[in-house]
UniProtKB/TrEMBL annotation, chain A:
The gene is ureD. Keywords: Chaperone, Cytoplasm, Nickel insertion. GO terms for molecular function: nickel cation binding. It is found in: Cytoplasm. Belongs to the UreD family. Required for maturation of urease via the functional incorporation of the urease nickel metallocenter. Pfam families: UreD. UreD, UreF and UreG form a complex that acts as a GTP-hydrolysis-dependent molecular chaperone, activating the urease apoprotein by helping to assemble the nickel containing metallocenter of UreC. The UreE protein probably delivers the nickel. Signal peptide: none annotated. This is Urease accessory protein UreD.
From TrEMBL, chain B:
Belongs to the UreF family. This is Urease accessory protein UreF. GO terms for cellular component: cytoplasm. PANTHER family: UREASE ACCESSORY PROTEIN F. It is found in: Cytoplasm. The gene is ureF. UreD, UreF and UreG form a complex that acts as a GTP-hydrolysis-dependent molecular chaperone, activating the urease apoprotein by helping to assemble the nickel containing metallocenter of UreC. The UreE protein probably delivers the nickel. Required for maturation of urease via the functional incorporation of the urease nickel metallocenter. It comes from the Bacteria.
Length: 258, 219
C-alpha cells in the first residue's frame, strides 16, 4: 500500500491553524487539540510492501504536537516484501514540534525501515521521542531499521541508525541492546538537565546543541519511567506559558482542508 | 602488502590506543561480558556498528583529507555520548602526535591545528593518507582496531587466555574484511551519507563508565 499524509501548521493570532490536514489509510490525521494532531489507524501498519510517507511542516512561530492513538506494528506480508515509512519534518523559525507517537513494535519476520528527517530553522524547537519494541509478547523481532537525521540550518545535529533483527549482527549482544526489548530515545533542543546516567540509560548533551536520552528497558513501563519526564514542552522565555492541551472537538473551525 | 600499512596497524605504534578498552571495561564491570562467548558477541556488535562507522570515516578522511573538518563534524553528530567524543578526540590527538613526527605533511599539520583534536577515525584517515595508504586500507586498519582494542583489553580485564582471544580475533577475520569493504564503499558518497549505525549500550555505558572514580581504562 502506498499512502501519504501531510500536516501543515501555521501560527495565527488565534493560535495554531492547520492549513493542511490530509492523509489516506493507514495514515489518518485527526485534530484532537488546539495544536495537537493524532494519527489514527496505526495498528494496521506498516505491513510488508507498504510505502508510507508523512510530511509535517510547522510554520514560523507555530506549535504542533503529533501523536498516534495506538502502537504501530511492523508486520510481514506473505511475500516477504519490505515496508518503509518516510517522515519528513520541517520546523520554521520560532516554531515548535512535539513528536510523541506510540511505539513501533517489530513483529517476527517483518522487514521495515523508518527514515525520519527533521530540518530545524534557527531557533526552532523540537521534542522527538522514538520507541522501538522488539517483538510482540515472547517473540523475536524481524528486521527493523530506524534512521534518524536531525539538522539545524542544514547542519547535522544528530544522526543515528538503530537496527534490530536477524540481519543486524550482534544487535542484542552486550554492545547493542544487551537483552533489552525496548529502546527509547528522546531528542530535545536546548538545555536539558542531564540527570545521572544508569547502567541502561543516559541523557547526553550533543556536540552541536540539544540532548539525546537513550534508554533501554525490558518494557515500556521501564523506559517511560525515564522518558516521560523528558517529553514535556521546553520552557519558553518571554512567551506565554504553555498550557496543558486537553481534547477539543475534532473538527475545529481552524482546520481548513487543503 | 605495504610496510607503511603494517606500521600504522601495529599495536606497538605509539598512538595511545592501549589506554582505551572500547567500552569493554564498562561491559565487564556491569557483567555483560564475562567469558569468551560474551566477548565474541560484544566484538561482533561493536564491529558492525561503531566499527563500521569508524572505518567509513577513516576511509572518507583518507580519500579527502582536505575535508577533514566537515567529516569530523558529521562524526560528532553520530556520537551522542560526550564521554565517547572526548575519548575519540584524545585518541585522535595522540595518534596525531606520533604522526606529526613519523609522517609529517600538510594535512597532518592542519590536523594538529584543530584545537580540540580530530576524532580518532578522522585522524586515522588523515594519517593513513600521509603514510601512503588507500581509503580501503584505512578502513581495514580501523575495523581491525575496533576488534583488537577491546579484545586485548579483555585479556587484562578478564584474565582470558591471550591465545584464545587471538583465536577469536582470527575467527572474526571475514567479518572484519566485510565491514572494511562496506565502509570503503560507503565512503565514496558525501560525508552526510556516511554510516551512522548506533550501538546503544556503548553510548550509555560510556557515560556510566566516565562517572566512575576507579577504572583501569580511560574509556
Amino acid at each position: 500500500m502506498k499512502a501519504t499524509a501531510r500536516v501543515v501548521a501555521e501560527h495565527t493570532t488565534s493560535g495554531t491553524a492547520l492549513r493542511v490536514l490530509k492523509g489516506e489509510a493507514p495514515l489518518l490525521p485527526r485534530r484532537t487539540g488546539p495544536s495537537e494532531v493524532h494519527f489514527v489507524g496505526g495498528a494496521a501498519a506498516p505491513l510488508g510492501g507498504d510505502d508510507l510517507t508523512m510530511e509535517i511542516e510547522v510554520g514560523p512561530g507555530a506549535e504542533l504536537t503529533i501523536r498516534t492513538v495506538a502502537a504501530s506494528i511492523a508486520l510481514p506480508n506473505r511475500f516477504g516484501d519490505a515496508s518503509r515509512l518516510s517522515v519528513s519534518v520541517s520546523v520554521a523559525e520560532g516554531g515548535r514540534l512535539l513528536w510523541l507517537p506510540e511505539p513501533l513494535i517489530a513483529a517476527a519476520r517483518c522487514r521495515h525501515t523508518t527514515v525520519s528527517t527533521v530540518d530545524l530553522d534557527r531557533d526552532a524547537e523540537l521534542v522527538w521521542r522514538e520507541e522501538l519494541v522488539c517483538g510482540r509478547h515472547g517473540e523475536d523481532p524481524g528486521d527493523v531499521r530506524l534512521t534518524t537525521v536531525l539538522r539545524r540550518d542544514g547542519r547535522a545535529l544528530y544522526r543515528s541508525d538503530v537496527a534490530v533483527g536477524p540481519h543486524a549482527r550482534g544487535w542484542d549482544g552486550p554492545a547493542g541492546f544487551g537483552g533489552a526489548r525496548v529502546h527509547a530515545t528522546v531528542f530535545r533542543t536546548g538545555e536539558t538537565a542531564t540527570t545521572s546516567s544508569t547502567p541502561t540509560s543516559a541523557v547526553m548533551a550533543l556536540a552541536a546543541g540539544g540532548t539525546v536520552a537513550t534508554v533501554l528497558g525490558r518494557d515500556l513501563i521501564e523506559t517511560r519511567r525515564i522518558t516521560d519526564a523528558l517529553v514535556t514542552p521546553p520552557q519558553r522565555t518571554g512567551k506565554a506559558a504553555v498550557t496543558p492541551q486537553g481534547s477539543t472537538a475534532i473538527d475545529s473551525p481552524l482546520v481548513r482542508r487543503a | 602488502m605495504k610496510a607503511q600499512l603494517l606500521i600504522l596497524a601495529d599495536g606497538r605504534f605509539p598512538s595511545g590506543g592501549h589506554a582505551h578498552s572500547g567500552g569493554l571495561e564498562a561491559a565487564v564491570v556491569r557483567k555483560r561480558v564475562s567469558d569468551l562467548d560474551s566477548l565474541r558477541r560484544f566484538l561482533i556488535g561493536r564491529l558492525y556498528t561503531s566499527g563500521l562507522v569508524g572505518a567509513a570515516f577513516a576511509a572518507a578522511a583518507c580519500a579527502d583529507p582536505g575535508s577533514m573538518d566537515g567529516i569530523d563534524e558529521e562524526l560528532d553528530a553520530r556520537t551522542p555520548s560526550p564521554a565517547l567524543r572526548l575519548a575519540s578526540r584524545r585518541q585522535g590527538r595522540s595518534l596525531w602526535r606520533a604522526a606529526a613526527v613519523v609522517w609529517p605533511g600538510p594535512h597532518v599539520t592542519k590536523a594538529g591545528a584543530v584545537r580540540k583534536g580530530l576524532h580518532q577515525p578522522v585522524a586515522l584517515g588523515v594519517v593513513a593518507e600521509a603514510a601512503g595508504c588507500t581509503p580501503g586500507e584505512s578502513a581495514a586498519i580501523s575495523a581491525y582496531h575496533a576488534v583488537s582494542g577491546p579484545a586485548s583489553a579483555a585479556v587484562r580485564l578478564l584474565g582470558l587466555d591471550p591465545y584464545q582471544v587471538h583465536g577469536l580475533i582470527a575467527a572474526l577475520g571475514d567479518d572484519i574484511d566485510r565491514v572494511a569493504q562496506a565502509a570503503t564503499e560507503a565512503a565514496r558518497g558525501p560525508a552526510a551519507d556516511l554510516p551512522a549505525a548506533s550501538s546503544p549500550l556503548l553510548d550509555v555505558s560510556a557515560e556510566d563508565h566516565a562517572a566512575w572514580e576507579v577504572r583501569l581504562f580511560a574509556s
